[in-house]
Amino acid sequence: MSLRNTHNTYGAVAKLLHWVMAMMILGLICLGLYMTSEPDGDPKWALYDLHKTIGSGVFVLLVVRVVWRKISPPPGMPVTMGRLEQLAAHAGHAMLYLMMLALPVTGYLDSSYGGYHLSFFGLFDVPMIFDKDEVLLEFYAATHSYIAYGLIAVLAAHIGAALKHHFITKDDVLRRMTVGR
Ligand code: HEM
Ligand code: HEM
Asked: Higher-confidence residue: 62 or 180?
């Protein structure tokens, strides 16, 4: 398997980044929904720290992924897909990238305006550039939640589309992001 994407399939780097980030993000959604429903105290704040650390990891991998996508552009969509369908797929992927950026950014702003700390896997604390502000804390916490709910909806469509391609259209779309050709 080639490291780079080719004109009709994803390469190893794009596949690895897609699946590692997919696991992290699906985990963050479950963790986020669970931790916010816990009573204040132990283990809620430890789960918040875990959520924030993994979330900052998503940010770093996203930067790597976007740079790699410039170096090695993704394969074209199958010719069997109509113009409108291709447009919808591109728009969906663009939304996913935008949300993968907006969640760590609003999460960071939530931490900074809340006067909290943000540890990057216990290695160092990410500097907090804004002073504590209750109003902005509320605003970014709510925005973060709404974007996360939006992501769940877009992901339902994304995963549904992948399954439709595989089981109904029976094309290569799912296989070229997995171990097949
Ligand atoms: C792609 C990355 C991320 C995803 C998918 C994600 C997802 C979520 C979800 C689903 C919730 C629960 C929302 C609710 O029910 O109110 C949540 C809450 C939260 N997230 Fe994230 N998150 C991500 C990154 C981050 C990062 C990087 C930080 C901090 C640096 C962060 C900080 C928080 C905080 C503080 C809350 C609780 C907000 C509240 O108290 O209402 N998240 N996140
Ligand atoms: C079980 C879950 C998932 C499945 C089955 C799946 C499947 C796929 C498939 C088959 C493709 C290739 C589409 C094509 O060939 O044009 C793809 C691309 C993509 N997926 Fe997923 N995915 C999943 C989870 C996720 C998650 C959690 C995210 C992030 C929020 C995500 C973000 C993306 C993005 C941004 C692309 C476009 C890649 C590019 O061309 O730059 N996926 N996915």
From this structure: 62
The domains found in the chain, sorted by start residue, are 12-177 (1.20.950.20)
- Hey, what are 62's tokens? 């996203």
Model pTM score: 0.96
Nearest to 47 by CA among 100, 55, 11: 55
- For residue 68, the CA-to-ligand 1 centroid distance in Å is 26
pLDDT score recorded for residue 179: 83
- Name all contacts of 160-168 with Cβ < 8 Å and 24+ positions apart: 161/89, 161/92
β-pair partners for 124: 120
Q: What pLDDT shows up at residue 180?
A: 60
Q: Is 65 in the pocket of ligand 2 (CB under 6 A)?
A: no
Percentage of the chain modeled with pLDDT above 70: 99
- Three-state DSSP class for residue 170: coil
For ligand 2, atom 3: residue with the closest CA? 159
